[in-house]
Design goal:
mainly beta; Cathepsin D, subunit A, domain 1; six-stranded mixed β-barrel
Length: 308
């Protein structure tokens, strides 16, 4: 019988080592991001940003709270609500942490209702302290498979559209439309550097772009401003990494220059899930264009930034 394995994609900046342009550094000023319940529907889920993390309001057994929307997470995680049924390990960047399994009678995102939904409980007090706001949980890809997820970081807008939705409230012009590949629950993109392709996971729960440290020597000609920094991952500890600027990169048939990354060890994550991730694309990459992750049709769409 295959052992159940969970993923938490959270990668949060604590200290950039003097290169703040490589990461998202902002934190909210309020203990609660939502002072009152926002207007939501099947098609529009209001959102806020806590640094580079997307926060949506969802309801756990009728109680509203702030939830991180994390495509690097495999399941629904709740902050210390349920009684433990069994102990499981969740894996992330160079770390693993104990979580507890349970079931929630009712979980709501907008008007979408999930009944008797499996969840995994964990202590998120350290995450709340870092981000400066209350966090009720983390929503992973298992709850997003029936949606197309639209994100515009600059306008603080998240839109969960039903697959058969014919929403005409926002007119968007496509810039790029590409099929997604998958490794386990990770949506993947191909990144090309110096004519070599690398496999990257798209992670809305990462405030930094990550490159596997195994490629540090191979990429030396395409890196600059290499220096030591520090990040927080899923465990209650910090990890030292090497921040750098990638001078050239091609992705989605678009050329990127001056993109901030960090070298880190992805061996734990890759071994735990039998995947081969060369890196992770987080907030500094995703914020460049409004985008839609269509989980059902397995496509990533980039939208032009004007006239939509």
């Amino acid at each position: 019988m295959r052992k159940l394995r969970l993923t938490l994609g959270i990668v949060i900046l604590l200290w950039t080592g003097g290169t703040p342009h490589l990461f998202s550094t902002g934190i909210p000023n309020n203990e609660y991001l939502y002072s009152s319940s926002p207007t939501a529907s099947d098609e529009i889920i209001p959102a806020r940003l806590a640094g580079g993390l997307i926060m949506v309001e969802a309801r756990f057994n009728g109680v509203p709270g702030n939830y991180i929307l994390d495509t690097g997470a495999s399941h629904l995680f709740i902050n210390q609500y349920l009684v433990s049924e069994q102990s499981i390990q969740a894996f992330g960047l160079e770390a693993q942490v104990a979580v507890e399994k349970g079931v929630v009678a009712r979980f709501e995102i907008g008007e979408m209702v999930y009944q008797n939904q499996a969840l995994f409980k964990m202590d998120m007090q350290h995450l709340e302290a870092i981000k400066g706001c209350k966090i009720a949980g983390i929503i992973g890809t298992n709850l997003l498979k029936d949606f197309a997820l639209f994100v515009d970081y600059d306008r603080d807008l998240v839109r969960l559209e039903k697959i058969n939705s014919k929403n005409k409230n926002i007119i968007k012009k496509r810039l790029r439309d590409f099929p997604l590949q998958w490794q386990e629950h990770f949506p993947m993109l191909s990144v090309t550097i110096n004519e070599i392709e690398y496999a990257f996971a798209i992670d809305t729960g990462a405030e930094a772009n990550v490159f596997s440290e195994t490629f540090e020597t191979a990429l030396s000609a395409q890196t600059k401003n290499l220096q030591v920094g520090k990040v927080w991952s899923i465990a209650e500890s910090t990890t030292f990494v090497r921040n750098f600027t990638l001078t050239e990169m091609e992705c989605l048939d678009l050329n990127y220059s001056g993109v901030g990354f960090m070298f880190s060890n992805l061996e734990t994550l890759n071994n735990a899930y039998s995947v081969e991730l060369d890196g992770i694309l987080g907030y500094p990459f995703l914020r460049r264009y409004p985008f839609t992750l269509d989980f059902s049709n397995e496509r990533l769409i980039l939208w032009e930034t004007r006239n939509y």
